[in-house]
Amino acid sequence: MNQRIRPLHRLLALAIGSMVFAIFAPTIVQAADPPTLESLADTTTKLQISIDTTWVMLTGFIVFFMQTGFAMLEAGLLRQRGVVNALVENFIDPCITILVWWGVGFGIAFGTSAGGFIGTDTFFLSQLPGADGSYPMGAPGSTAALNTYTLFFFQFAFAATASTITTGSMAGRANFVGDLIYSAIMGAFSYPIIVHWVWNSEGWLAKMGFHDFAGSAVVHTVGGWTAIVGAYLIGPRPGRPAWGTLPPAHNLGLATLGGMILWFGWFGFNPGSTLGTGNTGLIGLVTINTALASGAGALTAIFFQYTRSQKWDLTYCLNGALAGLVGITAGCAFVLPWAAVLIGITGGILIVVGIDLIEAMHIDDPVSAFAVHGINGMMGTIAVGFLGQKELTMNGKAGLLLGGGFDLLGVQILGILAIAVFTFAFAFVMFSGLKAIDKLRVHPKGDEIGIDAY
């Protein structure tokens, strides 16, 4: 009997509740303030900031995941006797970078500019949340409509990439303490200074109209030049084969996994650099250009190498894909898809020629870091000056091959020369100092028995 009554009780309660709502709801609605254009605009702005923050954080997580890709790529391409050392260096680099980026690097990069060359504040994320619970927005040198902490994290993920590039070129024989020191110096000084020049709104190259959307120059050229200087000063790995013949990879399965992770990571690297979702067409263009350049680079490299060796070489295919990705990073927002394919093809050729060049110079670069990141970082930056579309560039100037004259090309060449010269000089002093205090290369015993066993 009670079981039959309970449904009636529920229906009665529902009916009474509906009557109360019908009686009092109009009064509640009338008591609320009617929406105004100002309130709607404020709500829209807050919603856009919320969406943009979610987008930038998500892509930042993907960029950070690229550290896994670098670790797997290096572990696969190296000899087995140095794999553990490479893994610990790849893991420890972002640990160091986050601390020095928090303390010094972010302020130098995005703080108030001193003459367009270096930031002077915002160290240790010194902005405090407001008394009303609001969080600080942006940074003195950034116009992005993001809170400071979101901007900091996204840019940190980029900073960690630069030092990881260097780790690969010196793998298998670098002193671990030396790795800790140079990673800290890069994250605190050499990398953020270049960021300030290019991505700080008051940076001297930014004011000249230098175009580097996501870091062909800022991240990859800096990482590549630092890498080659380190590889030259540290010397070759013991027992490597004759120059002109790359040492065989330890595990191509790991290398392929690393290459695929890096390709995936670039879909955070480049599209995330929009720093917002307001222009969905731009996000689509950047994504498509990124994929096209990588595919073109991989195919070009593997076919080019086949004409030379009559073998389908997986290592060259992987590096060709990365070369295309590095090359398109500067111009992914400023060129059309056909130009992205052309940049990828150029990258695929340059990676093969670049590896030959480094071997001919008797510099041991185990993962071809300079050929991938240095050479193609410079190529991609300059390519904007040739192929930039006036409807897409920040100053409305077209590249030389599209009728824009030498204006854009001249700025691109000047910028990449300044970045390369500064980075080379800084890296030479830094690594020479480490060599002088015997912290650049592992102890000779480590060379003899293998760095992992030492």
Automatic annotation (TrEMBL):
It is found in: Cell membrane; Membrane. It holds the Pfam family Ammonium_transp. The chain crosses the membrane at residues 55-78, 99-126, 146-168, 180-199, 214-234, 246-269, 281-304, 316-336, 342-358, 370-388, 408-431. It is a multi-pass membrane protein. The keyword Zinc-finger does not apply. Residues 55-453 form the Ammonium transporter AmtB-like domain. InterPro entries: Ammonium/urea_transptr, Ammonium_transpt, Ammonium_transpt_CS, NH4_transpt_AmtB-like_dom. GO terms for biological process: ammonium homeostasis. Keywords: Ammonia transport, Membrane, Signal, Transmembrane, Transmembrane helix, Transport. GO terms for molecular function: ammonium channel activity. Residues 1-31 form the signal peptide. GO terms for cellular component: plasma membrane. Belongs to the ammonia transporter channel (TC 1.A.11.2) family. This is Ammonium transporter. It comes from Sphaerospermopsis reniformis.
